[in-house]
Amino acid sequence: MEEDIKTTSAPWKQIANMWNTYFTSPSRISQDENKKYKEWLREIKKGKIKALVLGVTPEIREALIALDYEITCIDINKEMILAMDSVLKVKSPNEVVINENWLENSLMDNTFDVVIGDCVLSNVKWEERDKLLLEIKRVLKPNGIFITRFFSIPREKPFKTINKLLEHFSKKEFNYKSALELVFELQIFCYNSEDHKGTFSEPKKVLEKFRVKNNFNFESKNLNKILDIVWNFWCEKYLNKIYYYPYRDEEEQRIKKFFEILKIYEAKDHNYSKITPMYFLKK
Questions:
Q1: Are residues 124 and 13 in the same domain?
Q2: What is the CATH classification number for the domain harbouring 99?
Q3: Do 116 and 37 touch, CB atoms closer than 8 A?
Q4: What is the layout of strands, in order, in the sheet containing 96-98?
Q5: Confidence at residue 6, expressed as pLDDT on a 0 to 100 scale
Q6: Strand pairing category for 140-149 and 112-118
């Protein structure tokens, strides 16, 4: 199954209303990660400098606005741009938003002092990773900085069987954060290192075996509620969305082909920081 922007743009239309509900850390930037982004951006802010945001993540744009950066955002998905614009707490009249592809765009060489994007690499096909990193390097000025966080897969899966995984979540409190954590664990559980794909179609196939008359009927009522969220939101509205995940050491080796790793940070306020590290990189 190949991702089609025409089919995957539809879910983003609903993000504005669902952003604060379904999208919790680690899918969304945590408070500690947000603090670190701001710290790094403050550290490199010397005079009026230009920043390129890959995507339109509100937290990153608000941090740049607060520090008086000259901001350009680029994203291929117009629906995503509109959705994220509507949830911005602070807006800049001077911000430029470009509706173009990260991989093929009209941006000039050596233009930006910093490129920043949260978990952007997982949105690019595995075989196109180098192309994106080359594009980032191309638009950065000499000695420019690339700041990002990425999703990876642990070498050893935490749960050997789906029953063990569900048993673990049967003891959790019902909330949207638990639902998102289950989504993460299901993608790890279903991960195939040969194609690096993380989809919602494979977890859906796994969960389908536990549904009886369109319901989950586990003894744990909390687990049933968590599964309902995972099924009705993530496995339905995001069924066609494909992410591409590496192992962490794989991604670091790839990054080193194009950038020098100056700093790595693992958040202290969620349990997935080992597989969602933040990177401060120099061209």
A1: yes
A2: 3.40.50.150
A3: yes
A4: 96-98, 70-74, 50-54, 112-118, 140-149, 278-282, 260-265
A5: 46
A6: parallel
The pTM assigned to this predicted structure is 0.92
Q: Residues with Cβ < 8 Å from 68, sequence gap 6 or more?
A: 45, 48
Q: What is the pLDDT of residue 161?
A: 97
Domain count for the chain: 2
Residue 258's domain comprises 5-151+247-282
Over 90: is that where the pLDDT of 191 sits?
yes
123: helix, coil or strand?
Answer: helix
- Confidence class of residue 17 from pLDDT cuts 50, 70 and 90? low
31 and 111: one domain? yes
Residues 120, 260: Cα–Cα separation, whole Å: 18
DSSP H or E run through 5:
helix 5-12
Rounded Cα gap, residues 280 and 263, in angstroms: 5
Distance (Å, whole) CA 168 – CA 178: 11
Match 């550290």 to its residue by tokens: 43
Which residues make Cβ contacts (< 8 Å) with residue 215, sequence separation at least 6?
Answer: 224
In this structure, what token pair is assigned to residue 153? 């897969």
- DSSP H or E run through 197: strand 197-199
136 and 29 share a domain? yes
208 with 256, same domain: the answer is: no
Both tokens of 135, joined, read 């594009």
- Tens-digit pLDDT profile for residues 92-101: 888 999 999 9
Answer yes or no: is 199 within a domain. Answer: yes
- Kindly state whether residue 156 falls inside one of the protein's structural domains: no
What is d(CA 119, CA 167) in angstroms, rounded to the nearest whole number?
A: 29
211 falls within a domain:
yes
